[in-house]
Fold these 3 entries.
Entry 1:
Amino acid sequence: QVQLMQSGGGLGQAGGSLSLACVASGRTAGTLAMAWFRQPPGQAREFVAAITWSGGNVLYADSVRGRLTISRDSAKNSVYLQMNNLEPEDTAVYYCASQTVYTPGGTYRFPEEYDFWGLGTQVTVSS
């Protein structure tokens, strides 16, 4: 099992910045990738960004590319999301996710590709 502990987020203003962190513990040796998803009010969970654990390759949703940055610290089993130039549309509960089982043909963009999830962190952006 892998446990994911999230921190950060909160209330921000449009144009401002917030950051999120996620620390993995437990059986982390098999981590293939980690990602951030978000669920806006009344909407489905959506992909934000992902990073592969060995190569550090990153993927972003079009809506956040250039504003949000995912990074990792393998030694600390941690993944981060730096959120700049915030928009009210970024308001959502943000979830950290870990992938430990390879999905053939996977794109890292779908929730079902991830095995473990954090509890979520609220991010609210005021205009």
Note: The mean pLDDT is 96.
Entry 2:
Amino acid sequence: QVQLVESGGGLVQPGGSLRLSCKVSGLILEDYGLGWFRQAPGKEREGVACIGVRSSVSNYADSVKGRFTISRDNAKNTAYLHLDDVKQEDTAVYYCATGNQFYCPAYGRISGAAADLWGQGTQVTASS
């Protein structure tokens, strides 16, 4: 059974940093693309970052480019999203997702439509 478990969310002051983790079990994460998505109350889900199979490519939404960094540790079968210079508008529940059909484009919109494996989410709240 495949499981994705996010952790690392919490309260952060604007301008601060946070690292989210996505621990994966049941598949070899290196062989899959993976995306980070977020959803704020009353807003649609947004793809914020993705990393391709064997880290071949990474891509970011314009809203987080230069502030967020996606990475993975193959030995730990874990992906990360490092948030720097956090803004109030980054407040949302953050999810990691993957799947056989998930594709990380080199540029452009990151879609979660093809991801069929999702974590439960972790809340990030940026507030002073």
Note: The mean pLDDT is 96.
Entry 3:
Amino acid sequence: QVQLVESGGGLVQAGGSLRLSCAASGSMFSIMGWYRQAPGKERELVATITSRGRTNYPDSVKGRFTVSRDNAKNTVYLQMNSLKPDDTAVYYCNAVSVFGTAYWGKGTLVTVSS
């Protein structure tokens, strides 16, 4: 049974930093990453990373957020710097297994105060 367990969310002031972690179990994953959903908005991509370390970011977080992974631990991280109030959202871990199935974590809330 595949499980994704996120941690690291919380409240931070604008300009601050947070680090999210997601520990995955139950399979091997080719792509891991993070999405977020703000109130009243659709879920959007934040960052992805392949098992070989290739990363992808939208312009909205490029240069501020860094995704990394520990393949031995099946864990993906998201280092978020220079946070803005617009980054406030529920952040979801996503992992795509080597068989092509996508899995989601339950989400962790990040709140950035101005």
Note: The mean pLDDT is 97.
